[in-house]
Amino acid sequence: MPEPYEVAVVGRGLIGSAAARHLAESGQRVVVVGPDEPINRRTSPGPFCSHPDEGRITRVAGRTAIWSQLAARSIARYADIAERSGIEFHVECGFVSSSPKISEWLENSATAGGNARPVNAEWVSKNTGIVLDNGHPVLYEGGPAGYINPRRLVAAQTALAEAAGAVVMKQAASSLRSNGDGYSIGGSWGSLSARRVLVTTGAFGSELLPRPLELHRMPRTTVTAEISIADGLPSLICVDPPDERLDEIYWVPPVRYADGRLALKIGGSLRDSEAVEEAALTEWFHGDGDQTEVEALQNSLLGLLPEIDVRSWAQKPCVVTNTVTEHPYVGWVEDGLAVALGGCGSAAKSSDELGRLASTLFESEHWTDPLPSTAFEPVFQ
Questions:
Q1: How many domains does the chain have?
Q2: Model pLDDT for residues 161-211, shown as the tens digit of each residue
Q3: Whether 134 and 197 share a structural domain
Q4: Residue 331 in contact with residue 373, Cβ under 8 Å?
Q5: Prediction pTM value
Q6: Which domain does 263 fall in, by range?
Q7: Residue 125 pLDDT > 90
Q8: Shortest CA distance to 265 belongs to which of 235, 291, 295?
Q9: Angle at 358 between CA 357 and CA 361, to 5 degrees
Q10: 183 with 177: CB under 8 angstroms?
């Protein structure tokens, strides 16, 4: 029998690839298990992942002080990850947010060392062309705020994990069992053993855990618009956007997508949206999302940028995995088995720090970070 790995990371997305890198670079004997993204999401049996995309907002200003700290720590390491992997994934273009809670976001940013500052709708219109008429306060955060390419970030983290000695198993795990000396992880490819396991499977993989986590899987639809503005736009989050069916929208400025289109991505949440069970997600990913949400997002984009011409539209489904604590679950399920998942729609930019925090669970018997462990404790059904 081969020697068991010290740690197996099950899930090779944004958090899992980061955790594998940090574990491998600390000297642990690590295997990370997770498939490449589906070639065709319409026919794939899953599991699906969040990182097959070209743009996610990055900024320090956040809805809690903890989110701002997580982001600031991650952003500080972007350049090192890019330089050592040879894979660029970060673009500085600034960030605008309009929300009733801007004062809290500004305070959280300042505490974490961010540069967000209050501005007004007139300033935003003059400098960006964005029309904000919801009456809410506004902030602007300059670089390094902007966006990251999550697909390229996962590639960079995976490359560095491999360089540090991690073994990458590009297959999905379908079983996880205690075997007395640790855990046995299995799939259609066979099985492997590890003394301890970190599960980072996002909205999927509940069957791998001995007891289910309290997660709210929210189906979302994103729209990409090939527009007449190619550059100069910041990333954006706007509460109470032009279409009243939405409670919030976000966008990432135009980036080049796999189909060759240079397109802005806009997403958000319908006011009456409800969570779905994990079993419903595969069918959701095989489809085109929610047409009502598509129309509301299109209306909001045209209201925020009334001068643009749209050459083409496209849409696709996604999912946001919310926790009941509004922070990711990073902690132990049982002795030897931990989780790091539940991004709450905000984890991409902070994934390196979330992976690092998860890796420290395997390096010390106690939580050693200044951030409170209680903010990340898993909650079970």
A1: 2
A2: 999 999 999 999 999 999 988 999 999 889 999 999 999 999 998 889 999
A3: no
A4: yes
A5: 0.96
A6: 91-148+215-323
A7: yes
A8: 235
A9: 95
A10: yes
